[in-house]
Please model this.
Amino acid sequence: MMQAPTDTRTLLLATDRQHTPLFEVDGADCRALVHSPHGGRSAIHPALARMGFTGQFREPRDRYQLGNGHRVYNPTLMRFHSPDRYSPFDRGGLNAYAYCGGDPVNHTDSSGRFIDGEQAGPLLTLFLHSGLLMNSVFSMFFTKMKGSLQLANGIAIAGSGISLAGGGTALGGEEGAQNLIYMGTMISGMVAHSRFAINTRGEYKKRQLKRNKPAETSAPPPTPTTPTPGQTSPPFDKLFPPKRASRTSIKSLPIFSGTRGGDVNGAGEQLRLTLKLLRDRGASQNV
Model:
């Protein structure tokens, strides 16, 4: 709902990527709105909408109270009416009255203090170094670090802390905060390269030790060989030595005669008696 000096009406606005109105539609009427790069409006096509350059509220004399009245911007003069208190050494630059550093096509300034989007840098710094700080702290408690790695991890924690302090002060508008961000980021970057070099060297040493270590292989069991013609095979006792050897004295045994001719039964009976006698002799000796 846009309010004109005399009446109230509803307008449909078509804007560009910086929210500057290009067309306004009032019922069946469609009017083109022309703005200069610095926001100056053409007097040939008067606008009914109070939303003007970069979506800011337009005063009746085409003035813009940026930052809720922090500074007044005059698009006809292409400059502010009051100087930037951050100039000349900080965001305002050398020209304390310039709008967006003289580049209104690619930048906007809705606060009257500095270019929109400059706070994205400190926010990105806070996000990045918060992750790096958490990674370094977890690595210190949950991994085994010794010597150079432990020292590098401590320096990384200090660098991330400096960057976080710089990012916080930059959001508050403090002067010189960007230097803290640069210093902390430089320290963290150098430590990251050092840790990578130390880890690479350690892995190289492990691989060298593993490569130079002799392979432990078990000797295969001996396989019996077949003697070639003209070669005498070793005795059976040397190839397969007995586990336990015992000496048993056997006395001469009488041989009973009585078999006649092919008397097989008589020979078998005599053999049976002989074996029985041998068994009895062996049993008596063991006792």
Notes: Residues 126 and 164 are 5 Å apart (CA to CA). The first strand starts at residue 2 and ends at 3.
